[in-house]
Design brief:
The protein is mainly α. The protein has two domains: about 70 residues, 434 Repressor (Amino-terminal Domain); about 35 residues. It is about 75% helix and about 0% strand. The chain has seven helices and no strands. The longest helix has 18 residues. It starts with a helix and ends with a helix.
């Protein structure tokens, strides 16, 4: 795998999670005490993230470094989702399960 592909994947995951949290690049940069340009470059896959900034990024985005670096969810991500699911009614859980089943089928897994 090419370095550029790795950086682009990392950038896509950062951008997706930031948007899920309804956070702007400016807000994320302020929370991390870095420049908006650093966030922009990271999301575009133009520059690698320094380890100390990766730690801050993961804390602000509430994800593991494994997820940012590889795209693989770890226990904290599953726990975050489980906590959200625990607040749903039985009917809502059934709907979520049907949606998940459809997504799995689409992915061919």
């Amino acid at each position: 795998m090419e370095k550029d592909d790795v950086l682009k994947g990392i950038g896509q995951r950062i951008s997706r999670r930031r948007r899920q949290l309804r956070m702007t690049q400016e807000e994320l940069a302020a929370r991390m005490d870095v420049s908006t340009q650093m966030i922009s470059y990271a999301e575009q896959g133009r520059k690698a993230i320094r380890p100390e900034n990766l730690i801050k990024l993961c804390a602000e985005l509430e994800v593991s470094a494994d997820y940012i670096l590889t795209g693989r969810a770890t226990e904290p991500e599953y726990q975050r989702i489980a906590a959200k699911l625990s607040r749903l009614s039985e009917g809502e859980l059934t709907q979520v399960e049907q949606i998940i089943d459809a997504c799995v089928a689409l992915a061919g897994k």
